[in-house]
Amino acid sequence: MYSAGRQFLQIPGPTNTPLPILAALAKPTIDHRGPEFGALGREVLEGVKEVFATEQPVVIYPASGTGAWEAALVNTLSPGDTVLMYQSGWFATLWRKMAEKLGLKVELLEGDWRSGVDAARIWAVLAEDKAHRIKAVCAVHNETSTGVTSDIAALRRAMDTTGHPALLMVDTISSLGSIDYRHDEWGVDVTVGGSQKGLMLPPGLSFNAVSQKARAAGKTARMPRSFWDWEDMIAANVNGFFPYTPATNMLQALKVALDMLREEGLPNVFSRHKRAAEATRAAVRHWGFETQCAVDAEHSPSLTAVRLPEGHSADALRAQILTNSNMPLGNGLGQLADRVFRIGHLGDFHDLMVTGTLSGVEMGLAACGIPHRAGGVDAAMRSLAGNNAPGGLLKGSAA
Amino acid sequence: MYSAGRQFLQIPGPTNTPLPILAALAKPTIDHRGPEFGALGREVLEGVKEVFATEQPVVIYPASGTGAWEAALVNTLSPGDTVLMYQSGWFATLWRKMAEKLGLKVELLEGDWRSGVDAARIWAVLAEDKAHRIKAVCAVHNETSTGVTSDIAALRRAMDTTGHPALLMVDTISSLGSIDYRHDEWGVDVTVGGSQKGLMLPPGLSFNAVSQKARAAGKTARMPRSFWDWEDMIAANVNGFFPYTPATNMLQALKVALDMLREEGLPNVFSRHKRAAEATRAAVRHWGFETQCAVDAEHSPSLTAVRLPEGHSADALRAQILTNSNMPLGNGLGQLADRVFRIGHLGDFHDLMVTGTLSGVEMGLAACGIPHRAGGVDAAMRSLAGNNAPGGLLKGSAA
Amino acid sequence: MYSAGRQFLQIPGPTNTPLPILAALAKPTIDHRGPEFGALGREVLEGVKEVFATEQPVVIYPASGTGAWEAALVNTLSPGDTVLMYQSGWFATLWRKMAEKLGLKVELLEGDWRSGVDAARIWAVLAEDKAHRIKAVCAVHNETSTGVTSDIAALRRAMDTTGHPALLMVDTISSLGSIDYRHDEWGVDVTVGGSQKGLMLPPGLSFNAVSQKARAAGKTARMPRSFWDWEDMIAANVNGFFPYTPATNMLQALKVALDMLREEGLPNVFSRHKRAAEATRAAVRHWGFETQCAVDAEHSPSLTAVRLPEGHSADALRAQILTNSNMPLGNGLGQLADRVFRIGHLGDFHDLMVTGTLSGVEMGLAACGIPHRAGGVDAAMRSLAGNNAPGGLLKGSAA
Amino acid sequence: MYSAGRQFLQIPGPTNTPLPILAALAKPTIDHRGPEFGALGREVLEGVKEVFATEQPVVIYPASGTGAWEAALVNTLSPGDTVLMYQSGWFATLWRKMAEKLGLKVELLEGDWRSGVDAARIWAVLAEDKAHRIKAVCAVHNETSTGVTSDIAALRRAMDTTGHPALLMVDTISSLGSIDYRHDEWGVDVTVGGSQKGLMLPPGLSFNAVSQKARAAGKTARMPRSFWDWEDMIAANVNGFFPYTPATNMLQALKVALDMLREEGLPNVFSRHKRAAEATRAAVRHWGFETQCAVDAEHSPSLTAVRLPEGHSADALRAQILTNSNMPLGNGLGQLADRVFRIGHLGDFHDLMVTGTLSGVEMGLAACGIPHRAGGVDAAMRSLAGNNAPGGLLKGSAA
Question: Are residue B310 and residue B386 in the same domain, yes or no?
Answer without folding.
Answer: yes
